[in-house]
Specification:
Layout (H helix, E strand, L loop, with lengths): L11 E4 L4 H19 L3 H4 L10 E8 L2 E11 L16 H4 L10 E9 L8 H15 L4 E6 L1 H13 L3 E8 L13 E6 L7 E7 L2
Parallel strand pairs: 4-5, 6-8
Antiparallel strand pairs: 1-2, 2-3, 3-4, 5-7, 7-8
Length: about 210
């Protein structure tokens, strides 16, 4: 019984809303999950200035009208000087991966993917991955970057593997610490969407 999902597929909605009320509900779920699952005090740490930007999208998941999770998607458009949240003057993704020609392609960061506790069984997490990958591809992104603690990376690997997306370690890099990490070790992933489905995902481990 513990493994039985708390929902039926026809009760779940996957939305990309602009309404503040829905986004505020997602933020509340996100903050609660980050505190409970990752032990991160989030109310102040997660204020990074990206929430209201025109290049930021949100995937919101609802069950019977109640928000139960979602993700944030931040796009970098060709020729733009927009930095992703994990970047800074001390760490630029285009310098780390010069072979990806990032200044001339569209890419994005997907982060803050959460699900309320009662909805973490079944395939709902996998469906979130399907929906944000589809959104990124529809918007013309070639790569998806993500950063998170190991528990999130393991979940992502599990979902990618089930979807037929290769997931492997390619090399180690050092990620600079950020205030929002609250001293926790983080890992960076890059998913290449330029390949025919299934696409390829690679894991890069922080070594410091």
């Amino acid at each position: 019984m513990l493994d039985k999902p708390a929902y039926r597929p026809d009760e779940i909605e996957f939305l990309f809303p602009k309404e503040k009320s829905l986004l505020d509900e997602y933020f509340k779920v996100r903050d609660a999950v980050y505190l409970e699952q990752f032990n991160l005090p989030t109310a102040e740490l997660l204020q990074d200035g990206y929430e209201a930007q025109p290049y930021t999208n949100f995937l919101v998941v609802r069950h019977n009208g109640k928000v139960i999770g979602g993700s944030r998607i931040i796009f970098h458009y060709e020729g733009s000087n927009t930095l992703l949240p994990f970047e800074g003057e001390d760490f630029k993704i285009s310098d780390v991966f010069p072979d990806l020609n990032l200044p001339n392609v569209r890419y994005c960061e997907v982060d803050r993917t959460v699900l309320a506790r009662d909805y973490r069984t079944g395939d709902l997490g996998r469906e979130i991955v399907v929906h944000f990958v589809s959104k990124c591809k529809d918007e013309g992104a070639k790569y998806i970057f993500g950063i998170g603690p190991m528990i999130q990376v393991r979940n992502y690997k599990r979902h990618c593997t089930a979807l037929g997306i290769d997931f492997h370690i390619q090399k180690d890099i050092i990620l600079p610490d950020r205030r929002a990490y609250n001293g926790k070790k983080m890992w960076l992933t890059v998913t290449d969407l330029s390949y025919p489905t299934p696409s390829v995902s690679m894991l890069f481990q922080q070594t410091s």
